Amino acid sequence: MPDATTPSRPKGTTTFQLTVRRFNRSPLAKIGGVIVLFLFVVTVFAPFFAPYDYNRTRLGMVYIPPQRVHFFDEAGQFHLRPFTYALTPDMDPDTWRRIYTEDTSRRYPIYLFVRSWEYRLFGVFTSDLHLFGTEEGGTVHLLGTDKLGRDLLSRIIFGGRVSMYVAFFGALVSAFLGAVIGAMSGYYGGAFDAVTQRIIELLLSFPTLPLFMALSVAIPVEWPPFGVFLGIIGIFSLLSWPVLAREVRGKVLSYREEEFVTAAHAIGAPNPYIIFKHVLPNVISHVIVILTITIPELILAEGALSFLGLGIQPPMVSWGVLLSDATTLETLGRNPWIMLPGIAILVTVLAFNFLGDGLRDAVDTTSHL
Amino acid sequence: MTAFILRRLVYALPTLILISFFSFVVINAPPGDYMTTMQATLVSQAGMSPGEARALVQQMREAYGLDRPFLVRYGQWIGNIVLSGDFGFSFSFRRPVSEVIWSRLGMTLLVALLAHMFSVIVGVLIGIYSATHRGSLGDSAFTVLAFLGLSIPNFFLALVIMYVLVFNFGQHVGGFFSPQYVIAPWTWGRFVDFLQHLWVPVVVVGTAGTARNMRVMRANLLDVLNSNYVRTARSKGLSERKVIYKHAVRNSLQPIIMYLGVAMPFLLSGEIVTSAVLNLPTMGPVFLNALVTQDMYLAGSFLMLLAVVLVISNLLADIVLGWVDPRISYA
Lengths: 369, 331
Known about the structure:
The structure holds 2 protein chains of 2 kinds.
Chain A: H1 15-24, H2 27-44, H3 46-49, E1 70-72, E2 78-91, E3 98-109, E4 111-121, E5 125-133, H4 152-188, H5 190-204, H6 208-216, H7 225-256, H8 259-266, H9 271-307, H10 319-323, H11 329-334, H12 340-363
Helix pairs in contact in A: 1-12, 2-4, 2-12, 4-5, 4-7, 4-9, 5-7, 6-7, 7-9, 8-9, 9-12
Chain B: H1 2-28, H2 34-44, H3 50-64, H4 70-84, E1 89-90, E2 95-96, H5 97-132, H6 137-151, H7 154-169, H8 188-225, H9 228-235, H10 240-252, H11 254-278, H12 283-293, H13 296-324
Antiparallel strand pairs in B: 1-2
Helix pairs in contact in B: 1-13, 2-3, 5-6, 5-8, 5-11, 5-13, 6-8, 7-8, 7-11, 8-10, 8-11, 9-10, 11-12, 11-13, 12-13
């Protein structure tokens, strides 16, 4: 408790409190934030949320439409525990297509926290616990199956893991590069600044997607899927830093003349220390905002690249890879549900855009709302 | 004015040289070259023995100068472009690169420019409506739509439109013409058919830009409507219509015009993905194919042209900006 001799700090609001207050005032930003959080949890713990192994093919279960979940059985009786019916494959006599009919005599209740296929989480824990599933013999394909009978929901969840990781790590590395290069460029000036400015100008004169495309064909075809995955992250981080670097440089240029930097200089602080300890913390909020804006851009880029066959390579899946199955009108017309990964991209990018927009307004504490 | 343009051109020169060099580096980054692709084809499809194929391919490498050092090849490529407008030879088309690009550039530019016009006109009009009806139901609806437009992947939007048109309306989609009109001479029917195909890529490519323009226009107009000179205009009794269109809108157009220059290559890159989905005879599929088969002069020239278009359109945007906004001087 402060006594009379030490004056207590005047009660005011810190910048951080102001930022939080502003962020909370935007409902869309909060919704976006919640969805983003949800997506990260689902994709990090993908095997737990996926009811099936995403690469397990079952040729007898090709192109099952999204399966219906029932609460009422054939007799009209209500069941608190939802269930699915067994599916019997059949052949449409006219079109020779495989069709599935529900066998209402066999009900398969859906249970939470079931044990089925085994997986390793983070390469350490081994488990076979899943969020939901049915008993042996029943199926629960909430979003249907693909051309090889693989569960689409599980594939979207696992594909989301790759799409999100590529975009997240790509954005993270590029934000780091952009912040450091921008800070150094603004702080040191001179030849270093001139060279980096030219490089930034050069990289920004190319539209990003064609450049991503051109560089991704440079990833050797004989690399394993995981190598390609790292390669794509590398391409994204090497080409996405200029925007941030330019912005950080501008901020640093104005901070360089501030008293606190002069003071740090005067007491003999070395340059790197001043950059990392005094200058960068001031621009960190902008770095975070740009990070949240870059992630959806990279998700879109990864989608387009993999869709064109230049990005992530099967058997690894990403949302773009999943959508590349949906290119012919024939398969689309018969199995429209294979377009669903596109909805996943849309929702994710939308959530990140809401969040990024809210954050951008929130960190700008000097403006009025 | 002329001095300004000349100065900007001179300033752009080193950038252009760097662009061309960087494009060449990027295109040469993949291991092997087109002849590697060809060697594999010769063995698998023409039934040559690996030794024969290697010898033939080596011979062709020498003929096309692909065995020379990197810098020499770059020097020849850029020298021919500057001196004689020769962009090199496209191995997969067996024609000069410039012929391949020119034959498809028209349609590519048509789609990109129409998408550009679409996004500017629609974006600005909706932006004006949203700003003048702030907080209304229409404003909220358009704001949500704008977020959707910014977030939907091009290729997914193309897929969805294609699906709806084909299976709900029974229309032919893909390419620029229905099968019966592809090689027919121009008639009214063919023209209508052309328009029926054209709007799909235009809308798909223009969606993100429309959403962006709308948001920028709305934010700007709201700012301007709060300024003193607008209050003056209102208080002297001008009609609301005049206040908005004659005073406020003109001043909020500036960032839209600045964006005109930046947007062009992005439209072209959106066009690449969209035309791959819709199977359009434009530059998109050609570029994609050139990258995959390492038809390097074709891919490199197109990549370079994209960047050059950006530099030029930025210059044009600067000139237009000065023309619209008298506060900007060319000194």
